[in-house]
Write a structure and sequence with these properties.
The chain is α+β, with helices and mostly antiparallel strands and 148 residues long. It is 50% helix and 14% strand. The protein is elongated and about 75 Å long.
Length: 148
């Protein structure tokens, strides 16, 4: 994996975790919206990254002659959005525009604590990927300085 691959990987991850933050923010904003169904972002891993897999890859590629580093490409991709299947509570409000024929509306099924925790995890992942890009940039700058 080269320097540009590392920056590209970080940029793709920034995009994915930025979308996660947007979805959780939308959920939190719609806590009190009747009939709103919580959205769940799907995040997919591009490679199977386990310790055994990384160790095996390093062992197999340590003495190869291709000159490539013994790392996996890794990364995440955005897999879309699914709706949370749990139902919100039924509230009796017969005059409400969204009420059914019996006068009930369904409250939002958003749990603010779950979405806040998920948003915090997405924010931490976003910050970690910003750090990856920043560190990679600093490494490239140092390499250029050494080459002078």
């Amino acid at each position: 994996m080269g320097i540009w691959d590392s920056i590209e990987l970080g940029a793709q991850s920034l995009d994915v975790h930025g979308k996660r933050l947007d979805i959780h923010a939308r959920n939190i904003a719609n806590i009190d919206t009747p009939n709103y169904v919580r959205k769940i972002p799907l995040i997919n891993s591009k490679d199977e990254v386990s310790f055994t897999n990384v160790l095996g890859t390093m062992k197999d590629k340590t003495f190869n002659s291709s000159g490539q580093a013994p790392f996996l490409s890794g990364g995440v991709s955005f897999g879309g959005i699914v709706e949370d299947p749990t139902l919100g509570d039924k509230i009796y409000q017969p005059g409400h525009p969204d009420a059914d024929q019996n006068g009930y509306i369904r409250s939002s099924n958003v749990n603010p604590m779950v979405d806040m925790a998920d948003a915090m995890m997405a924010q931490r992942a976003y910050e970690a990927n910003l750090a990856i890009i920043s560190i990679t940039k600093a490494m490239a700058q140092r390499a250029v300085e050494i080459g002078k």
